[in-house]
Design a protein that fits this description.
CATH architecture: Beta Barrel
Order of helices and strands: HEEEEEEEE
Distance between the termini: 34 Å
Number of helices: 1
Number of strands: 8
Largest sheet: 8 strands, antiparallel, barrel
Strand content: over 45%
CATH topology: Porin
Radius of gyration: 18 Å
Number of domains: 1
């Protein structure tokens, strides 16, 4: 249902009237701190939080004066921590969000929401009580993103919450990742 809703929103956004909006795509770079944990199936406690990084590029397709479609290509470090060690999950994350903007004097405040796909690059659970689960990481994970931020002149600051809607780990124990990211972005140009 979530996938269908996101696809429908994407199609409506792309087909809405404004032929000149497709002509210019703005882009920039983002990076920041990711604080994540793993939530397990019923009966197992959540892991403690683990700090990681995110870095990558973002693209913006203006659709109107207050609605923008954004896409990102990010390297993200997620996972969790238990009493015996880190549970690190590294992935390429591709979120696509619709951003609603409220102009202010020197920029705009925004709220964004959408879907994302994560492709697993690798994981390391060595030293953890859950080391046997390292081989059970799923290659592709689907999730959602919700962000609030402020875009001013030559920079943007953003806080986002992301959570998996499909399993990050499957094999007897089902685990999903939750994360809060604190991001700084810099617009680079347009094409």
């Amino acid at each position: 249902m979530v996938r269908f809703a996101c696809l429908a929103l994407l199609v409506v956004t792309i087909l809405s009237p404004s032929s000149t909006a497709l002509a210019e795509v703005a882009w920039g770079v983002k990076g920041g701190l990711v604080v994540s944990d793993l939530r397990w199936e019923e009966g197992n406690p959540r892991t403690d939080t683990r700090k990681g990084a995110c870095v990558g590029a973002y693209f913006e397709w203006p659709r109107s004066s207050h609605i923008t479609l954004t896409g990102e290509l990010l390297y993200v470090q997620k996972g969790g921590k238990d009493a015996t060690g880190d549970l690190r999950i590294d992935c390429i994350s591709v979120p696509v969000m619709v951003r609603l903007e409220v102009p202010t004097g020197s920029g705009f405040l925004y709220l964004a929401a959408g879907a994302r796909v994560d492709a697993l690059l690798g994981g390391d659970f060595s030293g953890s009580a859950h080391a046997e689960l390292e081989d059970s990481l799923t290659a592709v994970t689907f999730g959602t993103e919700v962000a609030v931020g402020y875009h001013f002149g030559k920079a943007l600051v953003e806080v986002r919450y992301s959570f998996d809607v499909s399993e990050s780990i499957k094999d007897g124990v089902i685990g999903r990742n939750d994360a809060v990211s604190y991001v700084l972005g810099v617009p680079v140009g347009s094409f």
